[in-house]
Amino acid sequence: METNKLENNIEEGKSTAIIAYLTVIGLIIAFVLNSEKKNSFAVYHIRQSLGLCCAGLAIGVINIIPILGWLVSIVGFFVLVFLWIKGLLNAINGEESPVPFLGENFNKWFSGIQ
């Protein structure tokens, strides 16, 4: 009985979770779509995607620094793309698994998103 409820929760929130990873606009759309339903699976992936967007913003700020900042931001960009793909695949596969390195922190930092 509990397994069916969990599977239903994942299936209901899967499309919203996937949308959350499709650009910043997709994140906003997912947040609005989930504002009434409050699906826990979708909320989890909205937090992960918001964290990735903030990390991308931080990489953009680092990119302002000449030479060293450029090198760090290039590496950071590739790491961010890897994390984004991992998060998207988790959403597609119906898994509540944090993205590597920062995923647990994203859940703590954005725990106010319900």
Write a structural description.
The chain has 114 residues and is mostly helical. The chain has one domain (2-109). The chain is built from five helices and no strands. Helix 1 packs antiparallel against helix 2 (23-37), helix 1 packs parallel to helix 3 (40-62) and helix 2 runs antiparallel to helix 3. The two termini are 25 Å apart.
- Detail the poorly predicted runs: none
Radius of gyration: 15 Å
- Structurally, how many domains make up the residues? 1
Say how many strands there are: 0
Biggest sheet statistics: none
Run of helices and strands: HHHHH
**So how many helices?**
5
The helix content, as a percent range, equals: over 70%
Mean pLDDT over the full residue set: 89
What share of residues are in beta strands?
Answer: under 5%
Distance between the termini: 25 Å
SS-based class: mainly alpha
**Global morphology:** elongated
List the helices and strands and how they pair.
Layout: H1 2-20, H2 23-37, H3 40-62, H4 68-92, H5 103-109
Helix pairs in contact: 1-2, 1-3, 2-3, 3-4, 3-5
Give a concise summary:
This protein is mainly α.
Relevant terms:
single chain; mainly alpha; 114 residues; 0% strand
